[in-house]
């Protein structure tokens, strides 16, 4: 039984977000839970220690986990975070992923890891969100037109309302937790995992355009950037979240040695106008 007087929210959400989409869904879930009269709070996993997370897990009734899909898989920071958590002793949990188009079993992949950690995973959901892959080599369509994004976000908000209601009612609902989805997800995940380590060294600096503002150094979730003799360099341990690429103020991050195609406009800047990725790295008070 959770002691509501101890100041912890009933529902704690841990999320990783490269460029803001998963942050947005987490905050939308908080709004929906609040409407239903439940106290909920979301934490970027970049801002809490394992000890603090364990404390929140112990003191909250239900735990949520959210992440963007990378090749039908979890981003490395989320995998690392889950693997460091202590045994959850049957704590109720929900898991969600954000994706541009499709992942197969995106929520179930994290769900399996959480189940192995002792969580009782009762809910899994997929949220379609804007594409954040803006690198030149693939040239996938993306937009920073917030009128066009409004429809996508509206649908995601309705799905968040649905998930919050199912959780509130205690009705289990697990999207993509089946053999067909697993098989389809694996078709993308298995090759992606094979090339992942090679891809980790693909981010670089376009020194012709870099203004040396240090945003990439400040924002990177895994400290892939560092200064050497006053020049920004990379360590080859990128986790492919694209935060540096998308939020460099002058789009001076290169991918596979290719600078951003400036003719396509700025890289994706997050789901809301003037989104500031600082929210993903700034600590907030643990209790409500
Ligand atoms: C390396 C990488 C791989 C991705 N793979 C997929 C994918 O397999 N399927 C998909 O629908 N979206 C994929 N995406 C798009 C993101 O999952 C999607 O835009 C997500 O909402 C981004 O969330 P974030 O802003 O919280 O990082 C990929 C993005 C990246 C950076």
Please tell me about this protein's structure.
With 288 residues, the chain is of the alpha/beta class. The chain folds into 2 domains: 4-186, Rossmann fold, CATH 3.40.50; 201-264, 2-Layer Sandwich (Alpha-Beta Plaits). The chain is built from 8 helices and 10 strands. The protein has helices at residues 21-35, 50-59, 76-84, 106-116, 146-169, 179-199, 215-219, 243-247; strands at residues 11-15, 40-44, 62-68, 92-99, 120-128, 173-174, 203-205, 225-228, 231-234, 253-255. The strands form 3 sheets. A 6-stranded parallel beta sheet has the order 2-1-3-4-5-6, sandwiched between helices. β1, α1 and β2 form a beta-alpha-beta unit. The longest helix has 24 residues, at 146-169. The protein starts with 10 loop residues before the first strand and ends in a 33-residue tail after the last strand. The mean pLDDT is 96. Flavin mononucleotide is lined by residues 17-22, 68-72, 98-103, 129, 131-133, 188, 240-242.
What's this entry about, in short?
The protein has 288 residues and is of the alpha/beta class. Helix content is 35%, strand content 17%. It contains eight helices and ten strands.
What is this structure's SSE topology?
Blueprint: E1 11-15, H1 21-35, E2 40-44, H2 50-59, E3 62-68, H3 76-84, E4 92-99, H4 106-116, E5 120-128, H5 146-169, E6 173-174, H6 179-199, E7 203-205, H7 215-219, E8 225-228, E9 231-234, H8 243-247, E10 253-255
Parallel strand pairs: 1-2, 1-3, 3-4, 4-5, 5-6
Antiparallel strand pairs: 7-10, 8-9
Helix pairs in contact: 1-5
The chain binds flavin mononucleotide (FMN).
